[in-house]
Amino acid sequence: MAKPGIQMPGFLREFGIPRLLIAVFLVVLFAVAVATHMDLRGLISDSIVRVGRNGILVLALLPAIQGGIGLNFGLPLGIICGLVGAVISLNAGVHGIAGVGMAAGIGVALAIPVGAGYGWLLNRTRGQEMMVGTYLGFAIVSMMSVFWLLAPFKNPTLVWAIGGRGLRTTLSLGGIYDKVLDRWLTFTVSGVRVPGGTLVVFGALCFLVWLFFRTRMGITIAAARSSTRFARAAGISDERTRVQATVLSTVLAAIGIVVFSQSYGFVQLYTAPLLMAFPAIACILIGGASVTRATIGHVLVGTFLFQSILTVALPVTSQVIQGDISETARLIIQNGMILYALTRIGRT
Amino acid sequence: MARGLLRHAVPILFAGLCLFGIVVAKITPPFLTSEMLVRMSRNSVLVLSLLIPILAGLGLNFGIVIGAMAGQIGAILIVHWGIPGIGGFALAWIIATPIAIVLGIATGSLFNRAKGREMVSGLIAGFFANGLYQLLFLFAVGSIIPFHSASMVLPQGYGLRNTVDLSTIQYAIDGLIPLRFQMQGVEIRVPLVSYVIIVAFCLVTLWFFRTRLGQQFRAMGQDPHVAAIAGIAVERNRIVATVLSTVLAAWGQLLFLQNIGTLNTYSSHEQVGMFAIAALLVSGATVSRATVGQALLGTVLFHTLFVVSPLAGKALAGDAQIGEYFRVFVAYAVITVALVLHAWQSTRAAHEARKAAR
Amino acid sequence: MTAPSTNPSSALELRSIVKEYEGNRVLKGVSLSVREGEIHALVGENGAGKSTLMNILFGMPVIWETGGYEGEVLLGGAPARFHSPAEAMDAGIGMVHQEFMLLPGFRVAENIKLNREPTRPNPASRVLGPKLESLDVPRMRADARRALDQVGLGIDEWIAVAGLPVGHMQFIEIAREVDKANLKLLIFDEPTAVLTETDAEKLLAIMRGLAAKGHAILFITHRLDEVLAVADRITVLRDGEVVGTPDPKTTTVVRIAELMVGRPAAVTAQRRFFAPTTEPVLGMENLNVDMPGERVEDVTLAVRRGEILGIGGLAGHGKLGIANGIMGLYPGSGRVIFDKALFPLNEPRLALERGLAFVSEDRRGVGLLPEESIELNIALSALEAHGRFLHPFPIQPLRVLDHRAMRAHALEMIRALDIRTTGPSQQVRRLSGGNQQKVCVARAMTLEPRLLFVSEPTRGIDVGAKQRVLEILSALNRDHEVTLVVTSSELAELRAISDRVAIVYRGRIAAVLPPDAPDADFGLAMAGESAKAA
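The joint structure predicted for all components is written out below.
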């Protein structure tokens, strides 16, 4: 809520008080874990798995920020595209890496027109992108809930056993492409298991996004974000660059959910994607991004910090108290971070 | 005529949708009447709580969830103390008010730090407050805060159960003056005193619009810069508007709960903002313009759809679940369309103002 | 209504007002006074310090956020120091703004009585405070009616402001100020800028009437003929200093214009012995540009190959609109020929591709990406328009930046233009104004243009850097044979570097003069007098 007006030393203010609190919190959690002789390797391993699982969804926010859209609360649009791709590939019964590839491919193919339409809409609702994105996402997710119920998928592993119509809420990927990327290239470093394949895919996409913002198109997108008037003087249509950025963000979200699902082992339908944008946004903000500027470093640092807290908080606190405090902690950290960012817009 | 139709396109479309649902689901007038009487009495105050921030230019106050939480704190305490009936309800109301004021000041200050992004800030602030609320009632109550009503606390000795039984204050207001009537052989109960309270709130809101402060809010809503130049304390007034809205939401939530009779400790408040806002918007109200009449009309239309759509879903597709998903979709879609139209119009208005200035 | 006292006392007195913004002195000890019953005109170019003075008088937050001011303000003889517009208004300062401060959705009377509404107490207000008193609509209307009658506006006081003609709005603003019971000083900030000539005359008449009733009026304007028509006294401001208080009875428009613009040359002339070709490289016929505040109307002008053409004129008359229009930044119409071919307007990209370049007057907004590095700022336009500094790749838009080539070019430019920086990767916003301007010029040079527009090249940069920037421009013209069109508010500087100087008045070319023409000719042209004389 309202932050007290205490004057902080400059270096602290630069780092950001919330970020500092989160880092300290994580250190404390790990200290407790060590003190209580918990399986530290297991915790680190779990953290890394979750970084790989969520990383691309966080990365998807970067083009939107760099393109001047701000925080892309409309991430569920891309997620839905990826889910449709996943369901189609499952319905066709494609297994293994090929299945993941098919899911991602269909997701991307859908995400391009969806992202273009979404970008077009955002151009007409400037200044309210966050609100429009949030509710457009909500609306599409709930519309798709009706679709999942009515969709003409017939594969008995996907539809409800009773009645034979309507997709199940959660589709298990066991034996289809459950953790195919996680297992591919898995290796162990001093007892810490690392899901190599997923990290390779995440790393490759990070590199490609980094490279993209060094191409002519990427530079143009970032320049238009920096100054609309500058862009117009240089003959750049910032409407176009914003659409390009939105498409890229939506496409990455579609890939992101496919990678997420294979790592998680389940495809979650219906209301599951509703709130997925918020933790991803919290990640990139915790990493140090602002509403107007983000880097690959922010994506990596933020995903690691936030996902580690979520991984470690539950086992550590459950030694002391019953009940899942990590969900409560997630709500407070995630939304506190977003609120903090919202109050910082326009200040330097 | 055509213009009028266009202007009222949203409520007309919605009424058509409701009517369609009523026909296909073969809903009887007594059923609909009794459902609507109850739902209106429950939800109207929550919808009314949105009007003042709109007047003051803050847009749709997604932060009324926070007010609802304040109301619930009051309800939980009186159940804990075991104070029943109208007395208990009144005490809950009295406890909730200062809490709502404090939370309203906090929310209002937040809005001042996030000008132009009040709506998204209110939405996120609601999620954030929900986290704090969970921390309070799921972990602090019974461990840090002494709280020993065995029936309310989880077996582990701390944290509230998922539901709190409010039967001691159920119908404390609704049933104060019992009124029933027969309709096609069905007995229908009218929560008379609740309606008196709703009418009173409507009148107070209308009166407020005509006070000096109301005029200041209206000026701020049109152009905060001009208002500030005229000497209006814009920032302070924005906090006042948020406080009024939060307090009204707390009261509205209590009125809602005394009708329902149970509190879902961790979820009763979550959807309050979305449903109230969607209800207001289906009347044709916008982010920057809403009247008392629209609040009431919207509540009727939206809750008709709410009652009708699962039944219609069942009649049409043999599945009530479809109707339930559909009404959630409608709620979100209505809000989305209103937000898009608002943003679209304001960018166009800015564009035209620039043109006109030449 | 304030009755004029026997001793015509000062309604407002300013004593040695000094104001700095981040070390930049924008007011250097300004003193002036306004007596009751008089109209005191304050004139000066944009950037002369008028707005800052008004912000101080009106207690605008921007003054206090930047460290306050020195000197004394006396209102009605009593010292005053306003920390908010509300305080200034309560003390009796009324302001008629350049931009209308009216709420379009409010009725006329509601606007006039905004935040000063007459009210009636009610039971709730007795408990909760006067803010909850009910509006007394009949009295609001009556008050508004009286004020409207005073300014001679016969419209219904209960209709909405939205949709009223622009002229009416200005009079409603005045009515609002006149309605204030404790009004001590009335400030008119460019009130005629948006009015038609008839409305402007009506407004001047009302101002005279208000003064006759004893009101003290401070009148800020660019329109010098209006000053002479109504002012009792005149103060001319230039670069934050009072440079003259000519008597309106004896002075002329030309004399005031000279005072406003005639600053001592900050630069030494770089006279060249130029053999002007008569071959036009850029021809404008009936050019109109819709740039707010700098409209261009029906300009016909030819730029000769190889020359430096200066464009001068007072602020708001449209000199800046010409370059912005040709470059496609504001909607333009008319016939433009560049290099013997018809040149498309409203196409910024094509303008760059055809070999034009522009160093904008709006350095921070249009000219630079402040958050980005020097090297990227220099390379960006050429990268966009000509695809330079990119590694080869079959798909054009996906060609990757050639960082080494960009760096090498930036280093070359930094050396050639003497940009003072810690290195090519430094953020541009950390540079001084002069060095930022050099980065802008460097970017324009990187485009290798055949014709370069430079607007306000020396605005907001220190004296030493001014000289350097002008030298760079001259060298560009001399050594690289780039035709230059330089637009500037600083006449002296234009005359120092140009081969010809065109003066713009009310959107039109008033005269094209040789740089060594007499001062009086320039003064006349800027005041639009030569057009009338001719």
